[in-house]
Amino acid sequence: MTDTTHMRREIDEIPQAAARLLEAAGGALDAAGTALREADPAFLVTIARGSSDHAALFLKYAIELTTGRPVASLGPSLASIYAAPIRLSGAASIAISQSGKSPDIVAMAQAATDAGAVSIALTNTLPSPIAAASRHAIDFAAGPEIAVAATKSFVNSIVAGLAILAAWTKDEALGRAVNALPEHFSRAVRLDWQPLADGIGEADSLFVLGRGPALAIASEAALKFKETSGLHAEAYSAAEVLHGPVALVERTFPVLGLAARDKAESSVAAILNDLAGKGARAFVTSSHASKAAPLPFVETGHPLTDALALVLPFYGFVEAFSRARGLNPDQPVALKKVTETR
Asked: Do 91 and 41 contact (CB within 8 A), yes or no?
């Protein structure tokens, strides 16, 4: 393994990748937003797996919070395995795939188009089968990603989705926040979360908590712990964890809380403070930390982009954490870059 991993280089490229997307894809993003505004969908569905599904979860919260339209995740096997008919007249769909060619994702995207949805594909690969299966295809322009663990493609797919949302709703505040993301990412990628490594220590399991869009970031963080570091991590809503999973939180059990500057921040911080008071090794990205240990974060001026910016210092942390454990984050065991499921 070289001194600098592919994963680290790709994390460092995120600010430039976001800037490239916003500069190059503006017309396509606006067109997709206009199509949604004209269609005025009653509801939306998402189609994705893995990190892309976490990006879809982020966009679900963003769309529901901004437009009031419900968003549901469709199981790709509905089309690829079960060939189940689905009614999507009056709806819109968002399919996310880095490679653009996983057969089950493509099949579900095509089914959504055939069912009458305003179908949008977010992909890092054009042309691609998923682009051909959708009415609107956005190249989210992350550039080549060599490390198996997705980082800049995850971030850029969400940036693309937020830009479409801003164009759809004509939300000027969100549009300004999205356009400012490259600058904020440049600061976020330099933040140091080393105290979290000390808190995890030799533990073999931990929880990652969040609410709203930050729950999607927690889900992505839990996956990256598994992929890169061989560490069992589970993501929960900071509220849901109290309904059973908290029974596993014994003294010294590590818990990471991801809080954005939104209406859920105080409740997330309160739960992490409570867990710390019970002896857990609790960390939270909030200035409301009292008993939990605070982790640094970047304030972007908008609750949605605040949540997205949390993933950059985490990515930098988990890459270093993997190497500290003697692992190679570029080559997780039993994984490959493109997973094609049916």
From this structure: yes
Q: Which of 323, 2, 246 is CA-nearest to residue 257?
A: 246
Cα gap 271→282, rounded to integer Å: 10
> pLDDT (tens digit, 9 = 90+) per residue, 16-57?
999 999 999 999 999 999 999 999 999 999 999 999 999 999
What is the model's pLDDT at position 182? 98
End-to-end CA distance of the chain: 33
CB 311 within 8 A of CB 181: no
Q: Which amino acid is at 41?
A: P
Rg of the chain, C-alpha, whole Å: 19
Q: Mean pLDDT for the chain?
A: 94
pTM of the model: 0.96
Q: Between 172-179 and 152-169, two packed helices, what is the crossing angle to 10 degrees?
A: 150
Check residue 252 and report its DSSP letter: T
List, as one string, the DSSP characters of 162-192: HHHHHHHHT-HHHHHHHHTHHHHHHHHTT--
3-class DSSP state of 258: strand
Report the candidate in 150, 167, 199 with the shortest Cα–Cα distance to residue 63.
167
